[in-house]
Structure formats: structure tokens, C-alpha cells
Amino acid sequence: xxxxxxxxxTAPSEYQRLMLSLVxxxxxxxxxxxxxxxxxxxxATAAADIRRRPAxxxxxxxxxxxxxxxxxxxxxxxxxxxxxxxxxPIAAYDQDxxxxxxxxxxxxxxxxxxxxxxxxxxxxALWRRTPGPARQRVGLHSExxxxxxxxxxxxxxxxxxxxxxxxxxxxxAIRVGAxxx
Length: 181
What we know:
Radius of gyration: 16 Å
Number of domains: 1
Order of helices and strands: HHHEHHEEH
Strand content: 5-15%
Largest sheet: 3 strands, mixed
CATH architecture: Up-down Bundle
């Protein structure tokens, strides 16, 4: 199952399964702790290619970094709503619209990291101080239905891995295309 074949809006269960499969039995907190360093490495590897898109309608490495920052911002709010409220509504967001209208391809990578990294640290600290039973608290996602804090936290770890792999695929596609031109 690939992300291209799984639409999170029309196939929410399949999307959840895909994100969870990318984490497997790994500790989701450990996966998430590794992500900022991996993102920094991808930014360095991308160098001058950071803003290049592999194809029309696909994201550049920088846009993918922006998406990770957006997702972390959204998750910071979702985690806190679920912990503080009784089954709060969880609004979906259009990730493509955010990447486009927030103009992530024009961002400075350092600015995106300055948003992403402290949010990630804060979310990891919240996770660590949240007792096990509280991690089972749920919110009502507008597209996917009931999601517990635990499920959301595991899914974002899979989301990290998916998009880091996408960054790698993006760079390979750009550089292979450049080599054949």
C-alpha cells in the first residue's frame, strides 16, 4: 500500500493503517525524536535543489519541511484539545492548500525549523508527562471519526517516516531527471 493509493479523506482507515505500519513496533516517541535531525540532514543534502519539484503537483523538499511544520502545529493543538476537553471536535485541514497558500517554497528552511523543532520538543514533553490512561482520551476527527491521543501520536510518527522517505524520493527524481537532460 502506497500513499499515492491511499486518500486520507476517502479512505481514512487505510490511511491510518499505512501510517501505523510505518512505525510498526518502534517507539513512536523515539521515531519523533529522530525526525528533526533527519530533516536537518535532508535540508543539507537537498542544497540548491531544495525548492525544486520533481513533477507538477508534487512538493519540493522545502514544501515537505513546511508540511511537517504545519502538521506539528496542528497536532500540538489537537493533543491539547483531546487532553483538556471531552471528545472535542478535531477539524481536518487541506494540506495542499496550506503548503500552497502559506508559500512554503518561498520560506527560509531555518524559519521552518525554528517553528517545527520547539513544537516537536513540546509535544514530546507533553506525551511523556501524560499518564497511560489519559493517552486513550479521544477527539472526533471530522474525516476519520474517533481518534485517541495514542493513535494520533503513533500516526504522526508514521507521517514523519513517510515524508522523510518522500524527501529522499523527491531528490532522487530531481537528480535523475537532471542527469538525463
